[in-house]
Each structure stands twice: as structure tokens, then as C-alpha cells.
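User: Before I run my own analysis I want an independent prediction to cross-check against. Here's the chain; please return only the C-alpha cells and, at the end, one sentence I can use as a sanity check.
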Amino acid sequence: MLVLILVLLFTLVLLLAFYLINFVLSIKDLGKNKISAFECGFVSVGKIQNSFSIHFFITMLMFVIFDLEIVMFLGVLVSDLSSYVSFLMMFVFILGGFYMEWWYGKLVWVV
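Assistant: C-alpha cells:
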């Protein structure tokens, strides 16, 4: 038990030492470009709400959702035949979501 406490204490001391050494030795550049927000290549002018296009967020969200659905499809493909109904239900929901995105105009690739 004493060895475990000593190892934990040594780890915390080493972690704190490395953190402080990194903080002391790091270069602190406080120029305008260094402290300004970087928003996907847009120049931040004015309020942050006006300079960020929501199109990139929606594209990322669609990618994550469809990526997760691909992973779920792979799980269904390696299972038995009794999961065929759940596969079809999931596929109908995916097609419905894709149709909704098309209907609301979210698949237009114009920024």
C-alpha cells in the first residue's frame, strides 16, 4: 500500500514538474494573429456570429451522423438473419433523414 502511494505521489510531482517546465520555457507570442480566433479560414471581422458560416457545421454534423450509421451497418452485416428487419428499419430512417436534408436545401454545396 505504501509503494502505491509513493508511486502516485511521484507521478503527480513529475507531472507538475513537467507542466511548470513547459510553461516557463514556452515562447509567449501575444501578437494579433496569435490571439485571434481561427474560424476555418475566415477572417474574423465584427461579431463572431456573423463571421462563421453554419454550412460547415451542418456538413460536419452530417458526416458524423452518416459515419456512425456506416458503423451500425457493419455491425448488422456480420450478424445473423434475424436482424434483417432492424437493418431495413434503420435504412428507412437513413433515407428519410437524407430526403429531409435534401428537402430543406442543406445538401446545396454553395457557401
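Sanity check: The chain has a mean pLDDT of 77.
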